[in-house]
Amino acid sequence: MAAEIQPKALTRKPVLLSKVEGSQDVVSMAAIVPKEDGVISVSEDRTVRVWLKRESGQYWPSIYHAMPSPCSCMSFNPETRRLSVGLDNGSISEFILAEDYNKMTPVKSYQAHQGRVMMILFVLEMEWVLSTGQDKQFTWHCSESGQRLGGYRTSAGACGLQFDVETRHVFIGDHSGQVTILKLEQENCSLVTTFKGHTGGVTALCWDPVQRVLFSGSSDHSIIMWDIGGRKGTAIELQGHNDKVQCLSYAPHTRQLISCGADGGIVIWNMDVERQETPEWLDSDSCQKCDQPFFWNFKQMWDSKKIGLRQHHCRKCGKAVCGKCSSKRSSIPLMGFEFEVRVCDSCHESITDEERAPTATFHDSKHNIVHVHFDATRGWLLTSGTDKIIKLWDMTPVVS
């Protein structure tokens, strides 16, 4: 049974700046317009909207564009003001926004997938549009011609997609829980590796090109930090949500990870600390502390004339222990456990107050978050929820 997360009392918390309301259905994705008081949103109500802040302090649509199908995802490049919109019918439509964000010019539209487009990325350096679909296909197209350059079939539908410009590696996280790394060329790709660490599907990916680490969020409520650059296979777990992790964003200047979940939680993780891998759970037929047999160990139960006990595991050392030898609970933040988990009695005694010091802060957005966008230059966070509302937060009190 999962341990209940107890958010810690905070003196500093995000400041809600504005609410953007008016969408008739869930806002699938949205982005803060850089250097402007504006937001671009795409929604299941089939609309693309650009919201600009008026003198009244409220956000009103300067652009309202109806699409032929529900909008599932988007990618916006501020340098070129190119907006790529993925649709439920499998097509991708591209637009160029005017400098004043009051006009949107259609550029092209093409069929990228046989089902819903789940994630889309525009790569300016390569002039590529990368996308994943419900049809279990990853594809990339030329942004200039709209021509399909190549594709790769994933093991399941994928809604995690990241790209590293330097190495041309693409990272794909799918619903089976697998992460696939491909090396992309102009018209072909090669499989680099696949790995799996989640017990649920991958719901979000986030790439840090400086530290060369990949973060994956999952429906199993956890986040894993994969050390890609270190080439040692290090995987650090982070446990901080009561429901599935919906989206991830990274603040490279402060080395803080922002995770948002279906529980409405916004968690700010300090990644500028020396974190530890969680141990592998050990197998044993008896408690590795008191040697009492577990309930399936009939021979030892018969020989010792003792009743078999239920098996548990210490989250710090990984040993198989009985309930009596693991009666204590403790947080282990450097292992990613910000809330109290089961530990054996000896490990409990060895954990210092310094090791229990929190490395994350917890905040309540008061809506079920489906997407997040972080503007590092201003320290603003955008969250969109199932309540059809977009919220803008000033994160400088907590991301600094």
TrEMBL record:
GO terms for molecular function: zinc ion binding. It is found in: Early endosome. Keywords: Endosome, Metal-binding, Repeat, WD repeat, Zinc, Zinc-finger. Pfam families: FYVE, WD40. Gene3D superfamilies: YVTN repeat-like/Quinoprotein amine dehydrogenase (2.130.10.10), Zinc/RING finger domain, C3HC4 (zinc finger) (3.30.40.10). PROSITE patterns: WD_REPEATS_1, WD_REPEATS_2, WD_REPEATS_REGION, ZF_FYVE. Signal peptide: none annotated. One of its GO terms (biological process) is positive regulation of fat cell differentiation. PANTHER family: LD41958P, WD REPEAT AND FYVE DOMAIN-CONTAINING PROTEIN 2. One of its GO terms (cellular component) is early endosome. This is WD repeat and FYVE domain containing 2. InterPro entries: WD40/YVTN_repeat-like_dom_sf, WD40_PAC1, WD40_repeat_CS, WD40_repeat_dom_sf, WD40_rpt, WDFY1/WDFY2, Znf_FYVE, Znf_FYVE-rel.
